[in-house]
């Protein structure tokens, strides 16, 4: 098996480097438990690899095997993918690869901040509280603004949006919208749903902002785990042609 072969090659490299203490970390549950003799092995091919691993383990003063979830083993998967993409003509020497680990991604999962520093519902909230229109508003804009304000309800300092079924959705600013996206999509109980489902989930939880759907779709598109472990498209690249039978009641 490929996992056993990779483990054997890695242990042999450490033996050549005269390393006496080793911690083997992997996401292949079967290999870890079989080497630790927690699971039995009956396959002949696996038994040969297992005996080879145990024989190499005797050359260390201390060696441990630890299993980690696949989601936490992204670094080794990235190195394996990188090594399979690079072809070296001179096999006697390979240039070292410098890997820099950053504390955070180059992009941020956030909703765009308001350009003027105010909340997107600032004018609506001010109109419901003091009946004041935005500055330099025309008569047509004031009429449209009154129609828009009828869909909102102000309770002390909290602004709500009325729904068609007479429900209330609390309006949130950019900072709280970012926190909701993080918690509902990838939080403790976040199932990493798609963008449209994420927006509907936030609405069902009782929150709303004006660009909730576009922000949810953009957030999912930038989610690192969704891009790696998302479902692959199984649709054929070309349209399939249906072949009819050459004559009636014929079968292949």
TrEMBL record:
One of its GO terms (molecular function) is nucleic acid binding. PANTHER family: RIBONUCLEASE H, RNASE H TYPE-1 DOMAIN-CONTAINING PROTEIN. It comes from Nicotiana tabacum (Common tobacco). InterPro entries: Integrase_H2C2, RNaseH-like_sf, RNaseH_domain, RNaseH_sf. Residues 1-81 form the RNase H type-1 domain. This is Uncharacterized protein LOC107788207. The gene is LOC107788207. Residues 173-228 form the Integrase zinc-binding domain.
């Amino acid at each position: 098996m490929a996992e056993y072969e990779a483990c054997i090659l890695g242990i042999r490299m450490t033996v050549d480097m005269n390393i006496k203490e080793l911690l083997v970390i992997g996401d292949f549950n079967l290999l870890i438990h079989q080497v630790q003799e927690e699971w039995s092995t009956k396959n002949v091919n696996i038994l040969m690899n297992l005996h080879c691993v145990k024989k190499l383990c005797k050359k260390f003063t201390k060696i441990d095997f630890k299993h980690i979830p696949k989601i936490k083993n992204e670094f080794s998967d990235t190195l394996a993918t990188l090594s399979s993409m690079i072809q070296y003509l001179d096999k006697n020497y390979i240039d070292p690869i410098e890997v820099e680990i950053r504390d955070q991604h180059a992009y941020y999962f956030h909703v765009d901040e308001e350009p003027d520093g105010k909340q997107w519902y600032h004018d609506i909230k001010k109109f419901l509280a003091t009946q004041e229109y935005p500055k330099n508003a025309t008569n047509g804009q004031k009429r449209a603004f009154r129609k828009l304000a009828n869909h909102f309800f102000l309770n002390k300092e909290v602004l709500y949006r009325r729904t068609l079924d007479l429900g209330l959705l609390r309006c949130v600013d950019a900072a709280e919208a970012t926190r909701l996206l993080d918690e509902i999509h990838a939080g403790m109980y976040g199932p990493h749903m798609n963008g449209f489902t994420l927006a509907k989930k936030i609405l069902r939880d009782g929150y709303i902002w004006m660009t909730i759907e576009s922000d949810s779709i953009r957030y999912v598109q930038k989610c690192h785990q969704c891009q790696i472990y998302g479902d692959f498209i199984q649709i054929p690249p070309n349209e399939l042609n249906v072949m009819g039978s050459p004559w009636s009641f014929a079968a292949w």
